[in-house]
Request: fold
Amino acid sequence: MTRAALSIDLESYWHAELLRKRIDRSAADDRVLPATLPLLDLLADRGVHATFFVVGEIIETHPALVQRIVREGHEIGCHSFSHRPLWDLSEAQFDEELARFSDMVERHLPGVKPRGFRAPTFSLSPTTAWALGVLARRGYRYDSSVFPLRTPLYGVAGAPSAPYLPAPNLVDSDPAAPIVEWPMTAWRVGPLTIPVCGGFYLRVLPMPLILHGLRQAQKRGPIVIYLHPWELDPDTPRLPLSRRDSFITYHNTGAAMRRRLETLLDNFDFTPMGDVLGAGNALTLQDAAG
Ligand SMILES: [Zn+2]
Reply:
């Protein structure tokens, strides 16, 4: 059984929460194509299929890119329409985001039926867990938005780090959950929870430590890696941020991150998340007990 998935959050660098409200989009280049095309070439060379959680605005502005992603056998998931975090939305506004995303899929990707969702900025928490019911009513089968560690911006302390059926507090399991949750992979070592699966940690920790952490995490259930195309782009625009935010946002982006991805591809057999969770659309939780 394959126990590893690669997920790509397909968005522009300016969708990141630290930048989202600071940029004049009309005057900026979104860099989506130069960031994503080399990644697609790399995955095609390696014969690897990933899950792309796509922002609806990207389908609208780059339909040919997303059509190529479908054609090359990757899974399409939803990363909202406009990348506003759940804590900025009402239930009705979130439903509207999903409706606008579906309209884009129907218009540009006929026949594609996204089954997975990832919340912008991992904004699923006990106060926004109502989103899971909205997703289930819209036909989604799994969510991948829980970050099992509290950070200054997001995260749920004490949440599981392998697929489970989430109770409203997102920490406990509940067989009546509306939808499967596949949280971000974390390596639990003593009292520490280290999210070795993406973002700042994946760019900063020594690679042998990351591979060890991922293999340890794999003993408890399937693992998921996440990354953004802009992290692989050597020319991602550097915006003026505080020294701390700049380090978190840009350290080891570009060629260094590409080498890290290649090392991950050397070490794991990745499959789309929907395939790991169950054949076709019949999602099961056979891995969740581990
Ligand atoms: Zn995102």
